[in-house]
Predict the structure.
Amino acid sequence: MSIQYEEKNRLFVLETRRTSYAMAVNGDNRLQHLYWGEKLPYASDYTLTAVPELASQESTLDVASLEYPGWAGIYYAEPCLKTTFADGVRDVVLEVAGHRVAEGAAPELCIELRDARYGLAVELHYRIYEELDLIERWVVLTNGGDRAVAVESAQSAQWSVPGNHSYRFTHLAGKYFHEMQLRRVPLTEGKKVIESRRSNTGHHQNPWFALDRGNATETAGPVWFGALAWSGSWKITAEVTPFYEVRVTGGMNDFDFGYRLEPGAKLETPAFIGGFSAEGFGEASRLLHRHQLTNVLPKEHAGNLRKVLYNSWEATYFDVSEKDQGAIAEKAAAMGVELFVVDDGWFGQRHHDRAGLGDWYVNPDKFPNGLKPLIDRVHGLGMDFGIWVEPEMVNPDSDLYRAHPDWVIHFPGRARTEARNQLMLNLARRDVREYIFDFMNRLLSDHDIQFVKWDMNRPISEPGWPELPADRQKEIWVEYVRGLYEIVDRLKAAHPAVVFESCSSGGGRVDLGILRRMDQTWPSDNTNALERLKIQEGYSYGYAAKTMMAWVTDNSADWLPLSYRFHCAMMGSLGIGGNLHHWSDEKLAEATRLIGDYKAIRHLVQEGLLYRLLSPGEGKQTTAVQYVAPDQTEAVLFVLAVHQSNADPLPPVYLQGLEPDRLYRVDGQDRPVSGRSLMSQGLPVRLEGAFQSRLIRIASV
Ligand code: DGJ
C-alpha cells in the first residue's frame, strides 16, 4: 500500500518504490510535516518531535514545519495560504478535519484542513506515482461559509526537506534567446525566489527546481526536485529558517494576486510535482522525463515519434507565399522531412510585425487560392501540413482591434503599452475565448492541418479587467490561464489528430501545465548550435527530449559544420529551418543523410533514458549525451567538441545505463565489448580540430 494511515499516532506515510513522505497530526490538530527522502523501513522511524521552548523573538510555528501553513499566529515564514475574511479577520487557522484515500494506478490521498470559524475547507491532494518516486500535490479551497473570502495567496504545496544548513538550490534562469541556463546557488538563512510576474511561464526563470546538500553529482547523492504545472505567473520560494528548516513553497504568484471566493465556490491550484532521487541529478531528470512521457503529454500523441519538421520562419520570415513555400516544400520532402510548417505571415495584412495579428483570414495576395493548394501539394509530397498562429494577441493595426478595442487587457485611462507592436487579448473574457475558439476551430475544420505552432510573443502589462468590479480584477491572473487552457482543451477535443507546439518567443512557455495540453515546445529562438547546447542541457534537467524541438537553420552556417549543427538538433525532436533555396546540392545530400541517421535513432532520443555525460559548460567545453533504450538493448551517444587537439585529447567517455554483462557492438569498432567495459573503461572518442562531432550507435550483440 503506497498510502498508509496509522490511527494511533495519526501518522500518514506515503511510499513510492524508493522514497517515503510522512506527516502527522500534532496535539494542536495541525498537520505537521515529518520526513521526505529515501524510504525508511519502520513506522517508528517517523516521529513527531515537540518544538523546543524558544525565545519570545522566535516563532515555534516557523520551526514546526506545518504541511500547509495558513498565515496565522506568530508565523513569519512563507505561508501557503493567506486570506481576508468578510469581517476583516486576516488570519486563517487550519486544523485537520478528516482524510480519504482513493486507490488506483496512481493512488490519491486527500487530507481536509478547515478553518472551522469561517467554514473554509482546504483539501490537500497527493497523487502517488509509485514507480517514478514522484508525488503530485495540489489544493482545492471551498468556501463553506456564507460570506465571500478574499484569497491573497493559495500555493500549491510546500515541500520540506530534512533540516540542514548546506543546501544548494539548482534552477533554470536566463532571458529571451538565452533560456534554461543551469544555475546553482548555496542557500543561507532567508529566501531565494524564482518567479514569473509576466502571465506566461517566462524566459527568465522556469518553474523547476532541485535541492541537494552541495555535493550531489549527475550519478550520486540525494536530490529533491519539483516542477510546477502552471503557464501563468508563478513563484517558487526556497527558504532556510533561522533553525535550518528548509522548505520550497510554490504555486501561482501571490504578487498582485486576488481571488474572491464566493460562498460555495471552489478554487483549485495548479499541481506541483515533487520527487526524490538518491542517485543524483541524472536520475532526477529521468524520473521527470518518464513522467512526462507516460502521464503528462496528451494521450493521442504521447506514444508517437515526433516527425522531422520543416519550419519557414528563419528562412523566409513574413515573406511566405503559395508559390515559394511550395518550392521549399519540394526540397524539404526530398530531404526526408515529414511535416511542413508555414510560420508567421500567412494571414491578414501581416507583412511585418506591425499589423495583422487578430485578423485570421488567409492573405489573398500571398495565397490567392487560399491555403488548400499548398496543403494539397505538401500532402502530395508525403508530408503533414502545419501552421503558425498567435491567437492571444492583436496588433492595434488590425480589423479586430478596430472593432473590439475593449477586448485587450488594459487599465482605463492609462497607456496600453505595446511590445512587438501588439496587445494581449483578455482570455479571461468569455467573448474573447469564444472568438479564439471559433477562428481556430474554423481554421482546423476548413483545412486538412496536422500541426499547430501556438505562439505568444509578449508578456502582460497594465493587467486590468475593467468589466469586473475593482475588488475582483486581480482574478485576471488565474482566469487568463484558465481561458488559455480551456480554449486549447476544446480544440484538442474537437481535433484530436492535430499535434500542438507551445512557443512563446522561443522558450517562454515551457512547463508541465502546457505539456498536459500541447505535445511539444520550442525552447528558444536561438538556433546557434553552440549556445543551443547549453539551452538544451538546461532543458533536459526538467523536460523530456521528445518535447524539445530543435532546428538546423542557417545560423552560423558559415563556420559551424552542418553535421555539428545537425548532431546538436538531433538531441531533441529534429527540425530544419534554413532557406533551402540557398543550400547547395552537396549540402542537401548531406542533410538527407543526416536526417536518415536521425530517423534510425530517434526512438532512442525521444523515448530512451537520457544520460548527461559531459557538460558544455565545463572543462573542455565538450558535450556528451547518451540515450539508452528502456530495455538497455541499444543506445546512441552524441559527442560535440568545441576544439580538440592531438596534444590534449579528450579522455574516454564513460557511458552509463547499459547492462554490465551484455555485449555491445559500437559503431566503428570491430570487436564487441561489455556494458561494464563501456561504463568502467570508457569509450575513446577521437575528435581532432574545431567543432567536431560524432553520433555513435551502440547495439546489443
Ligand atoms: C517567435 C517564435 O519563437 C519564432 O519561432 C517565430 O514563430 C516568430 N515568433 C514568428 O513571429
User: Anything to note?
Assistant: The domain at 612-700 is CATH 2.60.40.1180 (Immunoglobulin-like).
